[in-house]
Design a protein that fits this description.
The complex is a heterodimer of chains A (257) and B (603). Chain A has 257 residues and is an alpha/beta fold. Chain A contains eight helices and six strands. In chain A, helix 5 crosses helix 7. The longest helix of chain A has 29 residues. Chain B is an alpha/beta fold and 603 residues long. Chain B has an eight-stranded mixed beta sheet with strand order 6-5-7-4-8-9-10-11, sandwiched between helices. Classes of the chains: A alpha/beta (257), B alpha/beta (603). Chains A and B meet through helix 3, strand 2, helix 4, helix 5 and helix 7 of A and helix 3, helix 15, helix 16 and strand 11 of B.
């Protein structure tokens, strides 16, 4: 009698399962899952690349540039040993924000911090000391080369701005001269670096990435990302009290954000 | 990565620093090296605490805006703290000093001296024992004064100790007087001397019924004197040990005993651990969960077991022992007080920090790009000179040949200078390499130019002279690179190190490469330190030429025990330029820091 009582219940249950209600439940679940995935994807795409990195050699002026952009005031700075990040409102009318990240330029720290933040980079500002450029050409080019052949950077192709800082000093080199010299140095570097002995685990140090086109001399236009040169002065021509001369930089930031 | 010690000296200044890892602050105090300021540590701690408390709000804000916008008007507070610290140090000083008259000791001993004449030698002996190594004490009067002079340097606590010893001394003297009266022997004083001369003579009990107190020598302050030591009986059977051994035979090392000792240790540790676990119990489980979630700051006790394990792991991977210790110390300093995020264990944080430190060590200050520098030298129409130095048998000549092959492949002509004039067959070895390389790259394929040539002057000549001649020959003939091969030498061999330093100082090569093998363990530290020291000592110039880069050879013989790379770069802070992985010409690699660190951290 018990088994007989259960049977019709089971039948009813089985009919229910094959009914249209279950199908709709399943479709709803799938829709939710898909929406969730799409939302996560979009979120990660959008938020993962909201950072603008400030790179450069030691004493190029990155930290002062960072301070000026964020607060407008002059500050005495020390050599950075860790990164500083803050949200920067790009312009007064639009509400887009970017996260400015100031990385240390010291040789033993710079690559480590670049590794950490390169995936989140939407744009890179490479700060160059225009006054000491003649002496430091090789070091500047080496660091720039390391940034440019990095696989993540090549994949994302963030916009690159080379900010020729310290233009307030009379001996500062112009952006055009810096561009020419860098192109020449990078041309040599890509030959020597790719000719270096292969790395221990088999991967070549220069990577399969070849900067620019093979046959021709290196040119910044051959890179997959947009490169611009701008002159700026974080200290400002009127000394510490005055405003900094950052118009070109700010305009570029507006464009990039 | 060198954060282990917290002070740094540069020329005339000393800098002491303290890290606050919670808020990522560094406090630095600089002062002149010649001043020994005792209040510096206290000052730093006070400044740290006050600064942190005062500006806590600014630090709590995320991002750098708090630091940028906040005004940190700390100058007045700092001056106040500095004044406090200076005063506190001044107050302490006078209490240390105590004049000779005030010292109780001097009064006592002089008085005793006057009382009895027979006690003089005994006095001397007792005083000696009390003061230890501070005086020679030929005259008893001179002795106490010297002792007091020594006392003056002791701190107040030390003074008190001396006084209690004096009380004991006094007590012993009283006992002694009593004994003297009882026994009635006058020749007691020479007896101590005689006893001291004979050394371990058995004690003579010349007292019949004596006081138990007198015979109780356990409290006396006569450390190390002959009379108070019980005589030991020399049992030849016990001393020789195993009776059945054959005389004169050398037995092998027994390995079982080592295993047993290890097993014992291993057994003990689990028992200790299990005891701890039992005590933890339920609280332990909650503690584990609590450790995962929530933000807590790291303390030294948390990190110590993990660091110990990591240190042993590093040493097992052939990192030099002192470097492993220093590395762990610096990681501990860097992480102390840091706030961990959620779901991160102590182990993972420490491992990550250690990994970062290792990568930082392996990525050098300035990458040595040989090709780039050769191109520069080419433009100035002078040869680029590379010198190879190292101890015996590390692979200098083999790697020199590999590097010359690599340079020829890149179109540079090479002159090999055979400055190893000692080892038999060194010149012939290089000649064979030259012949092979020329066969691989014949002059026809390089525009009629011989790509590699050997400059040698046989054996027994002065290496520095041959190097100089080779460089001028290269300049005349237009060679791009000169590779100078030197003889291997041990770092302790002073005359040979002088000769090497002279070679380098006189010829001023562009690159000095130290060749070290990857199999070396703790020796790497000693080798590099002594080589650098020799180069620095014998150089006339203001800035001496030190080792510029390292060639790590025989890398194929170690699988993942790559610790030698860390040891060498840590000591010199110079990069590893080449890695040799075999004996053929193509076995030349460059270092991949991440791969090496991954191999190091692998379990």
């Amino acid at each position: 009698a018990m088994a007989g009582g259960l049977e019709p219940h089971l039948e009813a249950l089985r009919r229910e399962l094959h009914g249209p209600a279950v199908l709709s439940v399943l479709i709803a679940l799938i829709a939710v899952a898909v929406t969730f995935l799409i939302w996560r994807f979009v979120q990660s795409r959008r938020s993962s690349r909201k950072a603008v990195l400030l790179l450069g050699l030691c004493d190029a002026g990155k930290t002062l540039l960072f301070a000026r952009l964020l607060s407008g005031r002059y500050r005495d700075t020390q050599t950075s040993i860790t990164d500083s990040s803050a949200v920067y409102r790009v312009s007064r009318d639009k509400s887009t924000n970017v996260t400015l990240i100031d990385l240390p330029g010291h040789e033993s720290l710079r690559l480590q911090f670049l590794e950490r933040f390169k995936a989140a980079a939407r744009a890179i500002v490479f700060v160059v000391d225009s006054v000491a450029f003649q002496k430091e050409v090789k070091d500047v080019a080496e660091f720039l080369y390391q940034v440019l052949v990095d696989s993540t950077v090549l994949r994302n192709a963030p916009a690159l701005l080379i900010a020729c800082n310290k233009q307030d000093v009379t001996m500062a080199k112009s952006a055009k001269l810096i561009q020419q010299q860098l192109e020449k140095e990078l041309n040599t570097l890509r030959v020597t670096r790719s000719a270096a002995p292969t790395s221990l685990d088999g991967s070549a140090t220069g990577g399969p990435a070849q900067l620019g086109k093979k046959g021709k001399d290196f040119d910044f236009s051959q890179l997959p990302m947009k490169v611009e040169f701008v002159e700026c002065s974080a200290r400002g021509s009127k000394g510490e009290e005055g405003e900094a001369d950052l118009e070109g930089l700010e305009k570029w930031l507006v464009k990039v954000a | 990565e060198r954060g282990g010690n917290n002070s740094f000296t540069h020329e005339a200044l000393t800098l002491k620093y303290k890290l606050d890892n919670q808020f990522e602050l560094v406090f630095v105090v600089g002062f002149q090296k010649i001043l020994t300021l005792t209040y510096v540590d206290k000052l730093i701690d006070d400044v740290h605490k006050e600064f942190r408390d005062k500006y806590r709000n600014e630090f709590q804000q995320k991002g750098a805006l708090g630091l940028l916008n906040g005004t940190f008007d700390f100058k007045d507070d700092f001056m106040r703290l500095l004044r406090d610290a200076e005063e506190s140090s001044k107050v302490r000083a006078p209490t240390v000093m105590k004049t000779f008259e005030q010292s109780l000791k001097s009064q006592k001993t002089v008085k005793c001296m006057i009382e009895t004449r027979g006690e003089k030698p005994k006095e001397k002996v007792k005083n000696k024992k009390n003061k230890g190594s501070k005086k020679d004490g030929t005259e008893a009067v001179a002795a106490p004064s010297k002792a007091s002079a020594g006392d003056k340097q002791l701190s107040a606590a030390g003074e008190k100790e001396e006084l209690t010893k004096d009380e004991i001394l006094q007590k012993n003297r009283e006992e002694f007087f009593r004994r003297h009266m009882k026994a009635g022997e006058k020749s007691r004083s020479p007896k101590p001397d005689a006893q001291k001369e004979k050394g371990k003579k058995p004690r003579v009990w010349d007292l019949g019924n004596s006081n138990a107190k007198v015979l109780d020598y356990s409290n006396s302050a006569t450390n190390g004197s002959a009379e108070s030591c019980p005589v030991e009986e020399f049992d030849p059977d016990m001393a020789l040990g195993d009776k059945n051994r054959e005389p004169g035979r050398l037995y092998d090392l027994e390995y079982e005993s080592d295993d047993e000792a290890e097993e014992e240790k291993v057994v003990q540790n689990p028992s200790k651990a299990s005891v701890k676990k039992k005590k933890g119990g339920l609280g332990g489980m909650f503690g584990m969960l609590k450790g995962l979630v929530g933000s807590k700051s790291l303390t030294r006790e948390d990190m110590d077991p993990v660091l110990e394990k990591m240190k042993d792991h590093l040493i097992a991977k052939n990192v030099a022992a002192e470097i492993a210790v220093q590395l762990c110390e610096s990681v501990a300093k860097k992480l102390e007080g840091k706030v961990m995020g959620t779901f991160t264990t102590v182990t993972s944080t420490v491992k990550q920090a250690l990994q970062e430190a290792l990568v930082q060590i392996l990525q050098p200050q300035r990458r040595v790009d040989v090709l780039r520098d050769v191109m520069d030298a080419q433009r100035h129409r002078r040869p680029y000179v590379v010198t190879f130095c190292g101890v015996n048998g590390v692979g200098k000549s083999t790697n020199l040949a590999k590097i010359s092959f690599w340079l020829i492949e890149n179109g540079f002509s090479v002159l090999i200078a055979a400055c190893d004039t000692f080892r038999a067959g060194a010149v012939e070895q290089l000649r064979t390499h030259t012949r092979r390389l020329n066969a691989l790259h014949p002059p026809e394929s390089h525009g009629g130019r011989t790509m590699v040539q050997l400059y040698e002057k046989g054996y027994g000549k002065d290496a520095a002279g041959i190097a100089m001649e080779a460089i001028s020959y290269a300049r005349n003939q237009g060679f791009d690179v000169v590779l100078v091969d030197t003889a291997g030498r041990m770092q302790d061999n002073a005359p040979l190190m002088t000769a090497l330093a002279k070679l380098i100082a006189v010829n001023a090569p562009d690159l000095v490469l130290f060749v070290g093998e990857a199999l070396v363990g703790n020796e790497a530290v000693d080798q590099l330190v002594k080589f650098n020291k020799a180069l620095a000592d014998h150089s006339m110039a203001q800035t001496p030429r030190l080792i510029d880069g390292i060639v790590l050879t025989k890398f194929d013989t170690i699988d993942d025990k790559v610790g030698a790379a860390i040891s060498m770069t840590y000591i010199t802070s110079k990069p590893i330029v080449f890695v040799g992985t075999g004996q053929t010409y193509c076995d030349l690699r460059s270092l991949n820091a991440k791969a090496v660190v991954a191999a190091l951290m692998k379990a």
